[in-house]
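The records we work with from here on pair a chain with its fold. Taken together, the tokens spell out the fold as the letters spell out the chain. The record below shows the convention in full.
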Amino acid sequence: MGVKWLLRWAPPSGTPVSPDDDDQLQQLLLRIGASPVGAKDKAQPHVQCAMMHQAAGKEFGSNIVFTTGPGGLQDVWSVTFTQSPALCYFLIRKSSFVVEADVGMAAMMQRRMDYQVQSVIEFESTLYPQGDFVMRLLTTRHLLSGSVIFLGYALEVEYTPISDPAVAEPMLSAFVEMLQDQLQSMKDSSPDPLQRCSLVPVPSNFPKFTSLPQRFSPSHSAVAYVDLATSMATTHNYKSAGAKTQALQRGAVGSAGTPTAAATPPL
């Protein structure tokens, strides 16, 4: 696989996300000569990030106990990709740990280790290839307590010829800079205030995950998507989206329906 970068579509401060914002992203991608693959406006499932919490200690045999306290097991992210349905990637952000496993492992953790899925963030995508680059326009939703909350949009940019992140960085950087220039040109030529939205690169935490291989891999993608998911869920304007709910993990919710400072993700 190639090297992927993720960019978040960010409205101006205080401006709520809107399902209509994807028109601007589509215009941007069409502006650089990229066309959608498949049925137009038909997003396909791409990535699902599930936050799993171990509710209590669990005893195995006569003397082995797993706990959520210091030294025990911690909350875990489970990441699945539509392109590899038989595999699952488990990630603990606090410990900077990620591992590839059979998808059945998630069910085993729920059945035998008292893990429960707290919330799910899913990304649907529409494919936009352009030369050596492949872009995915991502629609992000938060599934929580029976509700589906629209979180906004993001963009995955993949440089396909190279799998070494360091070697691919100059090409990806130049391509993203070109996207930013085109977006700025769109802003300058439109009076629409929503055109003030920007594409914000999601910072990479790869160096912290020492178990990652040197070449870009699905494990890298899992780390990147969890970072994107937590960023979008914890900064989303819940009140403007018409839903009073918690942030990603057991955080307090203010009276106005927006997360308080206690809602910072612990992972």
